[in-house]
Amino acid sequence: MSEHSVEKEQSMLLQKQMIAGHYQALARAPEEGRKTVYTFVPGNLTELLRSFDLLPVLPEINALQSGMRKLSAGYIAEAEKYGHSEDVCTYVKCDIGMLKKGNISPTGTQLPNPDLLLLSYTGCFTFMKWFELLRQEYDCPVAMLHVPYQADGKIHPHHRDYVVEQLRSEVIPMLEKISGRRYDEDRLRASLALSVYAEDDLVWVLESAKNTPSPIDAYFGGVYYIGPIFSAFRGTPEGVEYYRTLRQEIEARLRDGLGPITPEGSMGRERYRLVVEGPPNWTSFREFWKMFYDEGAVVVASSYTKVGGLYDRGFRHDPDRPLESLAEYCMGCYTNLGLPSRVELLESYIREYHADGFMINSVKSCNSFSAGQLLMLRQLEERTGIPGGFIESDLVDPRYFSSANIKNRIESYLQMLEQKRGTKVGA
Amino acid sequence: MSATKIYVGIDLGSTTTKAIILNGAGDVLGRGITNSRSNYDVACAVARQEAFVRARFALIRTVLGREAALAAVAKGFLPALERTFHLQQHLDQLDRLRQALRQAAAAPRHRDCREQLHDRVESIVAAMREKAPALYGELAVRKSDFFRDLAAADYMHLAEQHSDPKRVTFDTLCGLFDAAILSVENSTGDGSFEHHISAALDRTLASRPAWKQSAEQLRAAVETARLIELKETGTVGTGYGRQRLPFPKEQIRSEILCHGLGAHALFPRTATVLDIGGQDTKAIQVDANGIVTSFQMNDRCAAGCGRYLGYIADEMNLGLHELGPLAQQSRRRVKINSTCTVFAGAELRDRLSLGQRREDILAGLHRAIILRAMSLLARSGGVRQEFTFTGGVARNPAAVDALRGLIKENYGQQTLNISPDSIYTGALGAALFALRGDREAA
Lengths: 427, 442
Description:
The structure holds 2 protein chains of 2 kinds.
Chain A lengths: L9 H23 L3 E4 L6 H6 L3 E3 L1 H10 L3 H10 L8 H11 L15 E6 L4 H13 L3 E5 L10 H23 L5 H23 L14 H4 L1 H4 L6 H19 L5 E2 L2 E2 L5 E6 L7 H9 L3 E6 L19 H11 L6 H14 L4 E7 L3 H4 L2 H12 L3 E6 L9 H21 L4
Chain B lengths: L2 E10 L3 E8 L4 E8 L4 H27 L4 H35 L8 H22 L11 H16 L7 H16 L7 H15 L1 H5 L1 H13 L1 E10 L16 H12 L5 E5 L4 E6 L5 E6 L8 H10 L4 H9 L12 H13 L4 H23 L6 E4 L6 H15 L4 E2 L7 H17 L1
Parallel strand pairs in B: 1-4, 5-8, 8-9
Antiparallel strand pairs in B: 1-2, 2-3, 5-6, 6-7
Helix pairs in contact in B: 1-2, 1-8, 2-3, 2-5, 2-6, 3-4, 4-5, 9-15, 10-12, 11-13, 11-14, 12-13, 13-14
């Protein structure tokens, strides 16, 4: 693939600048006296942090960026030296390794130490352990936001009140203390109003995949599309600008009847429409993606692009209910949903996006995703009559991506769909 | 001259490469198998050639079958011809081995003993040639179908006799063989029907008076079969090396689909297929038409596959085919926990040192493999009636015993199908796809 020049759209360049700019701002933070808060993608409170002029650092994003830039293997090895087992979440090990090697960001800039660890606990048990480790390393305060799991698939008023109460009585006072600023609700409202613009445009982009052919790949392309809104740019003017640009690009593709853009240009004929569950592999991301687009397989919807919020199911941040909507946002993230809700969501994607099949990329080191995936597979097969595919890889540990095996499974699965189509069995 | 349409399926596996030729009715005309070695292109060519040779013999059988007068003579003649043909092929390969050995002996590091080396090589190969006919005798049991294995066994034995600790050591002779066999294996040579049939025919006809008497008719029958044009109408490739095949993409199918369809062809009531090959295990569910509806494969580790047995056989200094029968003699199975090949090797040595019987340990190892397969089967949707077991490991009786027991324990009584040709299941499926493709195009 290296011999091909990678095509980049305006939105991609914009995103690249935004990310680089953010890492630079983080590098300058200590000398400029700005404070930083480490926090997680699911249930992130970016607008609230920004309203205190705090800069967010997202260790998961650092880990996946390190994976894509071929840095993670070294970091994981480093963490293993410190006694972290091979089976521990590889994001955690990548992060710990990066820290032990001097906390240099994936773009090569220095990352500042955290002034606060904001632990929004949304469905992933490992988050708690992760920040426990970071607290040990940095000796800094932790603010814990406990987000109730959506066991019955509903957000109850008492759940919301419970989260809002924590925001008021624990998180906000802590942020005031760290930043030295008073909580400014008007500032927060203004930021949340900007979030809504970006969220609307993102949903439009994701839903453009309902068209045939789909102008986007909602998994491999999707992970780029969610980048700004899932990380540091929700509620910022740059975020709004990015999503406006992206939407215009996709509108143009749709008008021109073009398929998704891939690293090798526009995809050829759309032969299979898939729904994918689970995070992607980052260390061989391009190779993984190529296994799909070479076969004409386009992902029309994915659950991974919902880890930072289910905007396509109607949720919006609400400037009129700032803390309430932040609370609802945290509870509505995909990893905070119980298995029945996840199955229901995937089933509706399969139907709404006219998918031919669905595939699970199972990552053993990621419990918040992998637990229950085979059960989900069976239930989805029963509900939709469509066979599911199952592949296994890892987030950022390159040792667990066996290319031949994965390619074999993907090709077998797609040929199986083709064969079923030919004979109309199970159609 | 008549023509017959044929369809070729090729399965480039990690351990062996298989080829199958079907006629237009879907009957198997010929099968070929070879070790995949490090060169898939050559492996593919060799397996194909072998399948074509067998297909020609199938045609000779058909031609002879038409002549009632020859029926009595033909009965013994055809197998003898086939054996002689393979002997000719073997001798041809020995010639190539001799060349390669001489070439290896010419390397500068053998400067001091070149003369002696040449002499020893000549003596060894001459002795190997002498022993060759016995390998293809009427009642001969060959330990392997592959030239590499047969030649290695003879060569090592002879090298011991022809070496001395001072001038030409056993190690030197072994080194020569390793280099030479690689070069023999990595070139196709000409083992074709055309190339060897005439010599094989002469030799066979001369071997028995009854055949000599009917020589003219027999020659005519062979000639008729030889002249039938085999029109390769469709070819489909599958297996791990399938990307290496010089076919367009449409002619390449995943082995999962091929195993499903192949198993269905062998046993039409198949609902669940378990395939244990060299480096992967597949649990496949198929519908009434042999179409795959669901499958599971071993993930990022190939523990518990065919290679595991190969490794264990090496560790125990046994032939692969000896493992199963030995394990069957177990009276008290040892529980082996590890399916990691390397750990199992360590566990094996550990148990041997504790004085446990080889048979009992082997029985435990076989069960460990099947336990792993059981988990894949469960994940793919369970075992349904009928159940077909394919792949190289299906030839191992102890693996089959363990599977039968565990299936009964977990799924109740099920029909377990195993074909003696199960190793060809993938290639058969591929050939059927080729046939089906042609029918659909028509």
